[in-house]
Design goal:
alpha/beta; Rossmann fold; Ribosomal Protein L9, domain 1; 2 domains; 9-stranded mixed beta sheet; 3-stranded antiparallel beta sheet; 32% helix; binds S-adenosylmethionine
Length: 373
């Protein structure tokens, strides 16, 4: 049995009857569960609550949506202008989630949730369309296989299941670990592709404290049980940084391991990250002060911030560093006077002259367009 077939079989069984060994205790917002059918709450195979990061008006994509619990919770939070898409590859899970779609639409006052069939490591390929194509063009030989591949490429380019830059928030609850190791980098690149510039990611998953040895990875029960496919705790963050995300953080970390196998601890975590809002960096005279407690910190793009110093930043980074993603870590200091701006041309670690950010007085050594000193 391959990893993929073990995952398909395990979650088909999980859609038909509750699999208690797949359930990890999670502290959900109970007020969001009140609207949900009991069957959806019972067939919960998540390990965290990424719905906490949903904002009104968001387009949310849930990777490996299972019974639809996170989608139906998110649907309450996105409100009238928002939309939620759940992707799953398993027909039985999709049928379970869709079974309550009408009932939930009535309770919410509109149908804000859609469940689509696909693999999360290939979000451009619509598996419903693949099945329709195969019914008309069965693959009987190698030449048919080449034809299928060409058709798939055309589909990805012309009718992607999830379009580029189309999602405000990607969430996932205990699914990334189930994707084959050789597909994990592509999976995270796909997440990056579909998130809008400036968009967010909140993923609850399982990580290991040590490298998982091959014999555990080859065990279909351990893999499909959300254990041996887990990335090691530092690899999980690094995979997102490598794909181009910034502000990558562990927002939740369960001290208590969920499972211990051969001495390796497997625990639930939630990571958050942001896709940079484009590359345009304009110097309009902004500064930030890093509050501490460390003497200096570096962001995911290599910029250094010294504690207590007015650090020169471009407008894009000012908005980012003073956003929710960085909590209260930085004090934002807007330029005293509105400036047209010039292309950013400062080395990391450049300080902003105090005069530039107070009373509108510019020292000679700073350009009036907002130069760095
Ligand atoms: C552990 S369950 C989690 C379900 C749901 N997120 C929850 O919180 O209850 C994993 C789900 O991901 C789906 N899944 C696993 N691998 C997948 C993949 N590569 N592409 C799409 N769905 C996948 C499974 O079919 C199953 O519904």
């Amino acid at each position: 049995m391959t990893i993929e077939t073990s995952v398909l079989e395990r979650y088909s069984a999980g859609a038909h009857s509750v699999q208690t060994e797949l359930c990890c205790p999670v502290d959900y917002d109970r007020s969001l569960l009140e609207l949900l059918p009991q069957e959806i709450i019972a067939k919960d195979y998540g390990c965290g609550d990424p719905s906490r990061y949903v904002k009104a008006g968001d387009v949310v994509l849930d990777l490996g949506s299972g019974s639809g619990k996170i989608c139906y919770m998110a649907a309450q939070l996105v409100g009238d202008g928002g939309k939620v898409i759940g992707v799953d590859m398993n027909d039985d899970m999709l049928a379970l989630a869709r079974k309550y779609q009408g009932e939930m639409a009535e309770k919410l006052g509109e149908d804000r949730v859609e469940f689509v069939k696909g693999q999360i490591q290939d979000l451009a390929l619509d598996w419903a369309a693949v099945n329709a194509y195969l019914a008309e063009h069965p693959v009987k030989n190698a030449e048919d296989m080449l034809g299928l591949r060409a058709w798939q490429e055309h589909q990805r380019a012309t009718a992607p299941l999830i379009k580029d830059n189309s999602v405000d928030l990607v969430v996932s609850n205990c699914v990334l670990n189930l994707v084959h190791d050789s597909d994990k980098a592509q999976l995270i690149r796909e997440i990056f592709r579909v998130v809008k510039p400036g968009g967010r990611v909140a993923v609850s998953d399982i990580v290991s404290d040590e490298t998982v040895p091959g014999h555990l990875k080859q065990d279909p029960q351990l893999w499909s049980g959300c254990i041996s496919g887990a990335l090691q705790e530092h690899e999980f963050l690094e995979a997102f940084i490598k794909a181009g995300f910034i502000a990558v953080s562990y927002d939740k970390w369960e001290n208590q391991a969920w499972q211990v196998v051969e001495g390796i601890e497997f625990r639930a975590v939630t990571i958050t990250a942001i896709k940079p809002a484009g590359n345009t960096c304009t110097d309009k005279g902004h500064a930030v002060i890093y509050r501490g407690p460390y003497s200096e910190v570096y962001d995911d793009e290599g910029h250094v911030y010294y504690r207590g110093q007015r650090m020169a930043v471009c407008e894009r980074n000012y908005q980012l560093l003073t956003s929710d993603a960085y909590g209260d870590d930085f004090i934002g200091i807007a330029p005293a006077q509105e400036q047209a701006g010039i292309p950013w041309d400062c080395a990391t670690g450049t300080l902003r002259a105090v005069a530039e950010t107070k009373g509108g007085v510019h020292e000679d050594k700073c350009s009036p367009g907002g130069g760095c000193c």
